[in-house]
Amino acid sequence: MAGKIVDETATLTELGPEQLRVLNTLVIVDNLPMLGIFRNVLGELGIRNVWHGRTAQEVVQILMSEPIDLVIIDDYAPLDGVKFLKTLRKGSSKLPNAVPVMFVTAVAERERIVAARDAGANEIMLKPFTAAQLTARLTTTVKKPREFVEANAYVGPDRRRKRDDAAALNRRDGDGAGERRDRRGS
Length: 186
What we know:
alpha/beta; two-stranded antiparallel ribbon; globular
């Protein structure tokens, strides 16, 4: 049974342990061991409402019938993750096109990563990964969502990460960033 966020006006960044418990998460994967990994990590974070879909038809049915707060797409499940993400972002008004999406892939090719980003992924994570890495990416996706952009050529999270002004100033004031540039030959 689907749970609801306790405070309907709360944003995902304001959720505490009680609200995480009722965060509705959809995992799109066809590999049962991988589904088990996702369920275990989500459970450790306190997320109890986890739906699972394998095909585009199953996923669309869940998205239209349940108040999903987070989607995790394991690329190259029976459906192409990039194509599905494009459909979700630019699709029907019945689908929650602004839902945060974490894109997980074993394909480390630049073209695939750029395609996932350009399709509207909030976070992209390469396999293999550790539970700690998955937890960090999930936390970033849920607790620090990026502003949603709807333009003619792009629908999805703002591709530019907003950074803390103090951290940006520290980088500019010689916290080692210049040394990294020098080592790369710039």
